[in-house]
Amino acid sequence: MVKKEDDILIKGGNMEQIIFHIIFKHVKDLVFIMEVEEGNRFRYAFANQNALLHADVTAQCLGKTLEEVLPEEKAKLLQSYYRRAAQSGKIISFHDEVEISSNCKVFGETILTPVKDGVGKVIYIVGVTRDVTQSFKEKRLLMESEQKYRSIVDHSLDGVLSINLSGDILEVNPAAVRMTGYNEELLKQMDISVLFHPEDLPTFRNMIFQTHYGLAMESFDCRFRKRNKQFISVQIKTVPIIIHSQIEGVYVIIRDISEQAKTAEIIKYMAFHDQLTGILNRRALLEKLDVLLKGKKEKEFSLFSMDLDRFKLLNDTIGHLAGDVILKQVAERLSGIHSSGAEVFRQGGDEFVILLHNSSRHDAGLFAQKILAAFSDSFYHDSKEYYLSPSIGISVYPYDGKNAETLIKNANEALYRVKEKGKAHFQFYCPDMNKFNTNVIALETQLRKAAERGEFKLHYQPQVNLRTKEVESMEALLRWDNPELGSVSPGEFIPVAEDTGLIVPIGNWVIQEACKQIQEWRGLCKNGVRVAVNISPKQFLQLDLLNIIEKSLNTFNIPPHLLEIEITEGAMQDTKEAIPILKKMKDLGLIISVDDFGTGYSSLNYLKQFPIDILKIDQSFVKDLPNSNKDAAIISSIIHLGRSLGLEVIAEGVEEECQAEFLKKGNCDKAQGYFFARPMPACSAEKIILEAYQ
Q: What is the DSSP string of 499-549?
């Protein structure tokens, strides 16, 4: 509020008074007029009201020098500025901190304006100090913010480039300089697009386009060109530069992910390649088949499932490390077979799979012959020579399957058939193979539960004394009736039991049941009825076989000589293990017979080494009697040999009277077969025994 006397002063005063009044009372800046004296001394000539209030200067200070009014340090500082203005005759400006009260300091901007006389001498200096505290703080905050930003950008490990909307590079940080190999000046002369791989430019341009609309974008699969023209894998981020709500440019942030990309490539390589041989693995095969089948680019292709015959024996003989060397050579040889469109995969162990693209059944057969031919040459390790042969099963798309699982399974089925038929050749898949295996799987599932369900039974086939017609012994034969499968032939389930190891518990059950039946039949004839049970090779070599037999004999209290253990020549091939077992059986009092005599390769040697009581002539020699002179001669020789060694001789498979007569005339002790009786339940066998002794 202007006082009344001020109004009068303004209305009635002259212009100089008005200006003086305004400066003194109404100008908010601090205004000083300093008189310049000789010797660069400056004396207060005028100070406006704000100067008197806020600059620690009073009216009594007017007429005094700077040194007399202000503290020494401040006086020296101000005097230096005033001296420069006086000597130069030019306007001088500076900033300093002004304490306007004991608790308040402000930042002031001071402008010193020299006033000259008529001859150009500076006689006064007008000092005007303005409070710029707020703008100073804003500038300082802005500077601090910019410094923080620059600190972040300059010390960032990521390259940061700012570009305008046209793509011209405006600014770069040190990391971008290091990353590209270009110096800052060169980069600022470039369009950023020249730094990207041509194939990645569409991706980058789309990112920039989206960023122009305010979207931050990101991409992980770009390649960035260095000055040496090499490309590095980078992760790109684009961020809009927004000034006053307008997008003025784009920050392009580049992270070098070359090492991560290399690591990812190594991991990917390891995931899809076999560690030992370096060729593709099963996972790669499944992915390749998945792509092929989804794309349906090929009308036909073939899948070869292959393994190496007898490789386990070789591996066990020369050692696993040497075996690995051979496997590497096998992989190299397979990969080197000349054929376009062939890819080799290692399943594991000595199993390999080959995918032959665009191949018919005929093409697959020709390629299989190339594989077999490739193994005609030997393999070498440590100056030693080794021969290997492959077995190969083949499935052809789409005839043998329309998905990866089926094609692989069917190729494996064909391989199994090759192994069964003698190895070292190839075979195509045919539908009957799966049918057989489906039956085998169903058999195994039911077979594992058969004993606990009580589905097994023993049938008995009489062994007739050819001279007396008496039945002194029986052969126990296993039968299986299943609610789902019906009556299952021993020819079907015994091989499955052998392969799965179920033959051991089943065989133990047979021994126990036979002993139980012997005990029940002991009163039918004075000497009792001997029962023969077949022992499989696996069962024969089990450690507790003798304990199981002895326990069954004791449980049913039967003489050991009434139990006959029937073994095949196959069970006796390992003489070191077989001889001690057979001797212990003889010590126990058991009767030992050799089944299918004459079909093996070392029959006479067995007779010499093993404690045998009975020879059983195989039915293959009996079926053509008496018409086959060779069979007749063989049987006569076996009978003569057996009697000479004091062995009982039993002929199997007798189906006609003429066969029985021939055997009787040849002095064969006993015979069994359909001519006398088929295998029958225990109750029916009991009647046969009784009739024979009536």
A: HHTTHHHHHHHHHHHHHHHHHHHTTTSTT--EEEEEE-HHHHT-TTHHHHH
Cα distance between residue 304 and residue 392, in whole Å: 6
Residues 533-555 as b or e (16 or more Cβ within 10 Å = b): bbbbbbbbebeebeebbbebbee
Number of H helices, E strands in the chain: 26, 27
* Gyration radius from the chain CA atoms: 55
Six-digit token string for 22 = 């305004």
Tell me the CA end-to-end span of the chain in Å, nearest whole number: 155
DSSP string, 272-333: HB-TTT-SEEHHHHHHHHHHHHHHT--S-EEEEEEEETTHHHHHHHH-HHHHHHHHHHHHHH
Q: Which two tokens stand for residue 327?
A: 């496997």
Give the position of tokens 């000479």. Answer: 644
CA 252/CA 161 separation, integer angstroms: 5
Tell me the sheet residues that pair with 31. Answer: 128
| pLDDT tens-digit readout, 369-428 | 999 999 989 899 888 889 999 999 999 999 999 899 999 999 998 998 888 777 888 999
pTM: 0.51
Q: Are 510 and 478 in contact (CB under 8 A)?
A: yes
- 344, 352 contact by CB (below 8 A): yes
DSSP letters of 129-157? Answer: EEE-HHHHHHHHHHHHHHHHHHHHHHH-S
Q: Burial level of 202, CB count in 10 A (0-12/13-18/19+)?
A: exposed
Count of Cβ atoms closer than 10 Å to residue 608 Cβ: 10
Distance from C-alpha of 531 to C-alpha of 682, rounded to nearest angstrom: 12
